[in-house]
Write a structure and sequence with these properties.
By secondary structure, this protein is of the alpha+beta class. The protein contains eight helices and 15 strands. It has two domains: about 120 residues, D-amino Acid Aminotransferase, Chain A, domain 1 (2-Layer Sandwich), CATH 3.30.470; about 160 residues, D-amino Acid Aminotransferase, subunit A, domain 2 (D-amino Acid Aminotransferase, Chain A, domain 2, Alpha-Beta Barrel), CATH 3.20.10.10. The strands form two sheets. Strands 7, 8, 9, 10, 11, 12, 13, 14 and 15 form a nine-stranded mixed sheet that branches. A six-stranded antiparallel sheet has the order 2-1-6-5-3-4. It binds N-(5'-phosphopyridoxyl)-D-alanine.
Length: about 280
């Protein structure tokens, strides 16, 4: 079965789905995006992701190229056309095609691209059983990372550094020595029975997975602290995690040379994963 992408109002065969060389996403990273997971042909936490997309658009004064109600239709079409059982939807909106000039172009439609790809839930579950390793890197990003923009060079460089050190994710550290978040995920540690995650300020992206997990934990009476943490706190932690639309809940067993707890996936990891999987909204 061939893949298809949605590009500016049309469904295109994947290999010939193109954007213009003067698209402002390409020229300036002038745009925003969202990533939705698909489980069993259903979109995970659709409303949360769509609402965050509209918040991101609003924060950078970008107009949605299609009405809010049409997103679900096109995403569902792509799930169907690409025969996705479990997968990921990538959705990107930019300030359109215009001669390269920093200021906003006038009377230009914003561009939209939506793609879909399959993922294996088995791979996720087996990765979960081993946990992942994390490397800390400097957080080199701008001051509005609460907006999900295309401006991704710092996380790209952070992730590459992590991978070159044999790790799966980078935890970015601010100038005060606190972990802000992962290069493409939120960061969590568990000290005794208290789960700690960085507060949702302008210094992190408020993850939709994070929000769903927090809701799930409230139901399960787990103590949550939205509080900054640093490497000394990681040394005291018995477990650690990342969350994102692509990794769901994923245990962390090592941060730099610090073994988290016993250096193995702990029992809370399973509790949190199950609680999260039960709490997600499928559409
Ligand atoms: N990234 N923090 C950052 C910097 C992220 O890029 C992401 C997600 C998250 C988690 O957000 P959510 O739970 O809503 O996926 C936190 C996506 C998956 C990506 O860029 O691929």
């Amino acid at each position: 079965m061939s893949r298809e992408a949605f590009v500016n109002g049309q469904y295109k065969v994947f290999d010939s789905a193109m954007v213009h060389v003067e698209d402002r996403g390409y020229q300036f990273a002038d745009g925003v995006y969202e990533v939705f997971a698909v489980i069993n042909k259903k979109i995970v936490d659709y409303d949360g992701h769509l609402n965050r997309l509209f918040r991101s658009l609003n924060e950078i004064s970008l107009k949605s190229p299609i009405v809010k109600e049409s997103y679900l239709f096109h995403i569902r079409n792509l799930i169907h056309k690409n025969n996705i059982q479990d997968g990921l939807i990538y959705l990107q909106i930019t300030r359109g095609v215009a001669q390269r000039d920093f200021k906003f172009p006038k009377n230009v439609n914003s561009s939209i691209v939506i793609t879909a790809k399959s993922i294996s839930m088995e791979n996720y579950h087996s990765k979960f059983e081993n946990g992942i390793k994390v490397k800390t890197t400097m957080d080199l990003r701008w001051k509005r990372v609460d907006i999900k923009t295309l401006n991704l060079l710092p996380p790209v460089l952070a992730k590459q550094k992590a991978v070159e050190s044999g790790c799966d994710e980078a935890w970015m550290v601010d100038t005060d020595g606190y972990i802000t978040e992962g290069s493409s995920s939120n960061a969590w540690i568990l000290i005794k029975d208290k789960l700690i995650t960085t507060p949702a300020t302008n210094s992190i992206l408020k993850g939709i997975t994070r929000t769903s997990l927090i809701k799930a934990l409230k139901k399960n009476h787990i103590k949550l602290l939205a509080k900054r943490f640093n490497k000394n706190d990681i040394k005291k932690a018995n477990e650690a995690f990342i969350t994102s639309a692509t990794q769901f809940v994923m245990p962390v067993i090592k941060v730099d040379n610090i073994r988290v707890g016993k250096g193995k996936v702990g029992r809370y990891a399973h509790i949190f994963k199950n609680a999260y999987m039960e709490a997600i909204q499928l559409k």
